[in-house]
User: Fold Benzoate dioxygenase, ferredoxin reductase component from Marinobacter excellens LAMA 842.
Amino acid sequence: MYKVALNFEDGVTHFIIPMPMETVADAAYRSGINIPVDCRDGACGTCKCHCESGRYEMDGYVEDALSEQEAKQDYVLTCRMIPESDCVVTVPASSEVCVQGRQVDVHAKLSGINRLSDSTLSFTVAGDQLSAMHFLPGQYVNVLVPGSDQSRSYSFSSLVNPVDDSVSFLMRVVSDGLMSTYMTEKASIGDSIVLRGPFGSFYLRDIKRPILMLAGGTGLAPFLAMLEKIQQDGSQYPIHLIYGVTRDNDLVEIEKLEAFAAAIDNFSFSACVASEESDWPRKGYVTNHLNPDHLHGDDVDIYLCGPPPMVEAVSSYMQENGIQPASFHYEKFAASK
Assistant:
């Protein structure tokens, strides 16, 4: 058996000793530490960490969760990582987030559905249990699809509204998708909704320098929650968001972004559309609209959320152009059937 040091971003270190053939994630959980994890089968990438030293075996995962380039750089999925020596693993989360028992099941009611475009809708749930979830802006929950035993993952697109104990989510409408079919054809206000979470290491850290936010599609959702938090607390540093979509009809919540820009002194945003047939004034991908002013000489924290091809394209762009931010936090997601 080997010892594994888990170094958390708040400076706390915990040591675990996996049993033979036990994964790091399972050993951590057995020791009372919840490394952010969701699928446990190498498919989602939630438990991605960096192995600073040591040997390990890792297989049975998909490239959307961990790219070949990331694997070469010693990034690991702890749900598939089996140590073959003592190891040091950096966990991209605060130790506070990883306290066992933090995830809870919350029973709420569907309180609103708003079709924002032919590709996107928002839904709102309400219930006095939501305050017990203690999520950080940027995190997500697994929502049980009513009438089934399956769940789908959605990032919070708001904080909990103290007036009616409600919280909102953005959802991409997928043809024949299980949750899409429920929301567009079957749902009724007042339906029971069960949420489990929160999950994820993608969340707003303490603001210590300028921030650049890069959103793709419904990857805008966590940034809406972050901006709500920033509006409450304020920021002395500039914050810029670049929001990219494929088609004009995919652009949603522009009015909310304009409201945040009016309410937050240091916040600005731009939106772009990739389609050559777009009528939107800014065309292309988010990387086409990055400029040196957004990077502050690399003294910047970059947050990136979008579908896997977009996340990989931005990561490659940063490497090819020598962009080395003070910190880089990202989350990939794929629309689920």
The chain has a mean pLDDT of 93.
